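Recap for those who missed Tuesday's class. We walked through two folding examples back to back. For each one, the amino acid string is listed first and its predicted structure tokens come directly after. Nothing is annotated here on purpose, so try labeling regions yourself before you check the end of the notes.
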Amino acid sequence: MGKKGKKEKKGRGAEKTAAKMEKKVSKRSRKEEEDLEALIAHFQSLDAKKTQVTETPCSPPSPRLNASLSAHPEKDELILFGGEYFNGQKAVVVPQGGGQLWIFGGEFASPDGEQFYHYKDLWVLHLATKTWEQIRSTGGPSGRSGHRMVAWKRQLILFGGFHESTRDYIYYSDVYTFSLDTLLWSKLSPSGSGPTPRSGCLMAVTPQGSIAVYGGYSKQRVKKDVDKGTQHSDMFLLKPEEGGEGKWTWTRINPSGVKPTARSGFSVAVAPNHQILLFGGVCDEEEEESLEGSFFSDLYVYDASRSRWFAAQLKGPKSEKKKRRRGKVEEHEDATEQENGGTSAPEPLEVIKEVVTEDGTVITIKQMLAPSGLVVRPSPKAEDNAVETSSTGQEPCPRSNAMLAVKHGLLYVYGGMFEAGDRQVTLSDLYCLDLHKMEEWKTLVEMDPKSQEWLEDTDSDEEDSSSDEEGAEGGGEDQEEDSMEDSAEEGADPQHPEVASGEQYEEYLTRTEQYWLKLARNHMGHDAKEKKVFKVAQAMAKTFFDDTVEDTAQAKH
């Protein structure tokens, strides 16, 4: 009795603490949100009469992450909604009435990205008539983002999320249901030990009628102005109790198989056979002063019927496999084993892809494809070109917060982001994978370099201080850049790579980048920082390119 009483008191104490924290966060963030309400009210007044959706042909969507990508329940269409570029919403599609797209909550950021407004409204897009309708129902979840919502029978079930202001934040582990018949919210109180508060988790309905919840992210304050993030890797099932309407139970499970490594920002979809797919994500290594992430492009599958995880593997193009002959395979067996160090296990492949953005910045995407990733695993008697026939160059690069959807057995991956140094790259490429054949990724839309931009008002304090020190010694970064530009302007040096007729600057820089980097390094010395060398090389190339184009134009006139 005594132990039970202590546990109950401890549980009530935790609930009180959570309630106090939510009240504290709500009070502090209210003033901040009021500053944004005027801006949002202006948007709403402009959109007040725009409940009807018009459909017009357009170019592919702009780069984004944290959007929702859903398959139309009746048409051969994918529906992309919302997202962010540099706040996202969660959408659920239900098949009733010609198809409906349900949206709850989400986040709106101020133009400077310093203030956030968390919505708690519920909307439905009627796909048959292409009209939006706001559903006004009390008793629903508080304003939040990063939550997850699924359609279960005639209900929408929502779990978790977070609310953040400038100074405080809170993560949730509450569960709400919304009836599609009565259009009313209800808060559930499941029995059993459930997940700790989190956002961005996997949430999907299993063929057995339970709801699976895996992973997610949360953070907590360890001391003043220091937060510690947690990438969860635990898994739970939310099960309806038999004979008890509205009663649910949490159960923690430990599936077998090859589980995903620790990560957050992964994307989720459900395959036609009801298996749950998990793609990509990022594993953040946090220090007090820094945060560095490793991004993924692997695909995992959770089979709820067997409670088992396994890593998906591609087979490679079928047409190429048929061309191989057993005799030729045996003939090259010894050479293959020797090249692989006496074993048939393939070495990891490094794929390097360079993208030149509109502002001239060159982004190098390096991807290490381990044998356990989405590459072809040669059989013990497969020849070397088994690796070459894989679609390595067409696979999505490692990324987090991408959009995932399945339609007619095809898995679609769109957008997301990855980091290159201090720069965040938001993607707009589109890939698909046939889940029945599992042969190769196909590129439907490539990333447009012109859609990439990075605006930096000032460098970091460290760079500023180092620039000041170098300036005191008589050689700041600006002076170096000016001197390099002057040297480039002084002569149309015949040794510089020529600009081809009709060539754009991005193309020219991609072709000649190594030359300009070497030239800048020679001018600045081997002790110069790589970032400065890169900037000076770009300045030299741009100056020479502009001068050449101008001289050519004047010569024509």
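Example two. Treat it independently of the first, because the proteins are unrelated.
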Amino acid sequence: MSSLLASIQTLLFPNSTSSPIRISRQLYVGLGIGFALSLSSTSLALFFADRRRRKAGRKVPPRPVELRADDSVVGVIGLIGNTPLVRINSLSDALGVEILGKAEYLNPGGSPKDRVALQIINDAEEQGLLHPYTKSRIFEGTVGSTGISIATIARAKGYEATIVMPDDVAVEKVHVLEALGAEVIRVRPASIVDQTQFVNLARTLALNFGPTVITSLPGVQNELETSFPSPSSVHIVKTEGVASVVDVNENEGEGELRRTRHDGRGELDLVVSDKDETGEGWKDGKGSRGFFANQFENPSNHLAHYSTTGPEIWRQTNGILDAFVSGAGTGGTLSGVGRFLKEISSSSSPSSSPLNRLSPKDELELDLELDNELSGSGVQRSQAGLEERRRVRGEGGVKVIMSDPQGSGLFNKVKFGVMYDSKESEGKKRRHQVDTVVEGIGINRITHNFELGEHLIDEAYRVTDAEAVAMSRHLTKADGLFLGSSSACNLVACVRAVRDGLVPQGGRIVTILCDSGNRHFSKFWSDTYLEEHGIPVSDDISELLYG
């Protein structure tokens, strides 16, 4: 050892007269100092990282859904929410970012619609519109997922359910609904202007459930002005045909009758009919009622995600994320989560965050007032209005990105201001509703819930059926994730966002895993069905990943 040190000394310090022992001591001291400095720098880095997490955590509220500290939860409703974030390893490793999926398919009803159904029913109960165990029935028009969630929660809370759906959706959804004891009515897909369209038929059935119509409209009054009246402000009117609202206005006299509309289209958000014919018996809350949930126009949909899903994502990421991706059918997930993440990530301090301001309902009312002030005429808002909205809401923060399947018009609406898709041309459609094998997202009209978040969207991506199919097959092969069509569509949009530079290297992007594959065996996960409809089946996404 000493001879080795002497040789090193001769090579490095030929003129040195120091002894080898002296050199060995200097070497050991240097190594010790270097090691100590390395530990110190690592400790400092960990300290500041922990400090950053704690600072972000101060902006995070208590969990919207109660912590599951006990060994059990109260009923099936206790299982809703607090779904985990899962890292999509194959995509994350390939792109050098963290792609995280919020596993909403782990909700008891199998989708994020459990949150929506629970919020809608709870809001109706708070206003005295619904009372459990009175043989009341909830009506809804849906392509499946919301219907399953409503049927699940209706059973848990003492209601019956009637679900109206297109007859071309995957049959697995019908089987689940029937197993839950729901009445299922299947109709041919049709335009929203057709009274036989599934949403319109659900509304009609709710109106015809009883002779007395009770309307509170806890989402829309006078176009986009929102109010959430107390049960004492609910009024009734006997109707024949079109339902109207008795709205008491102190300045206009007691009991003035007027038609309440939504965005000039003459639609009612919520409709409740009562079997009591006297017009008085409904007040004791014992009468059977027919309730139209209307997930597309009811802002309880938006509020469910603004008050639960958004805060959960913020907490699970410690407030460190660059982008959020979601598809849009009703638009509630995209607008609710997007609005929350935009607001809290743009806040300069915890006191200015949405978590420490007004209640979600009051916040929504202010947001809609801003919509009214900034909305222009024609198919697009004015550029000045968009600039003002960005100024009010704050630039930067989390980017909100929409994924849209082929056949849906939302992509063109966001990108170009025109609700149109080329597959809507005569002779090109495979389906009557939205020309895609993807179910659950995509639509060819603007809903109220989508309007609430349209101005928040930073980017939109069109996803083809072939891309969604390839992504789903890749995920089962590479990650062991058996996902449905909407989830695959969202992950395709995540990859595109990363490749377009919307997420920096080492950054983080979160999306919604809406559905598992177990409700898609007859269509999206049927190679035979796909081949019959000219959709290629492959698990190769190399072109998507690397161009």
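Answers for example two:
Residues 216-268, 348-352, 373-394, 425-434 have pLDDT under 50 and may be disordered.
The two ends are 57 Å apart (CA to CA).
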